[in-house]
Design a protein that fits this description.
The chain is 85% helix and 0% strand. It is mainly α and 99 residues long. It is built from 4 helices and no strands.
């Protein structure tokens, strides 16, 4: 469950990055993926969050159950906040892209 919430965090942050920095001008489908830096930004954010998570578990010497509980709550709260932000501001950002 904690892993699913981490993946959801990664996906929601990727959507947010794409909304703030859309790459809409490309000649073919390959350019849309290969020349899009947004994917790299999303990957770097996900790697940093993952490394910080592992570092916290090791440094604080958390048990498996305690670590799972803490990160379940932390990623749950982060996911809810990102989701609410996307629901509130996402439509406005998307409408700016369309115009």
């Amino acid at each position: 469950l904690t892993g699913l919430l981490g993946i959801l965090f990664s996906n929601l942050s990727g959507i947010l990055i794409d909304l703030f920095n859309p790459k809409l001008h490309w000649d073919n489908e390959q350019q849309a993926v290969k020349r899009n830096i947004n994917l790299m930004i999303s990957m770097v954010i996900s790697i940093i969050v993952g490394v910080l998570t592992v570092f916290a578990v090791i440094k604080l010497k958390l048990t498996v159950g305690l670590a799972a509980g803490i990160f379940l709550a932390a990623f749950g709260i982060l996911d809810i906040l990102l989701y609410l932000y996307l629901m509130k501001k996402g439509a406005a950002l998307f409408s700016q892209i369309e115009s």
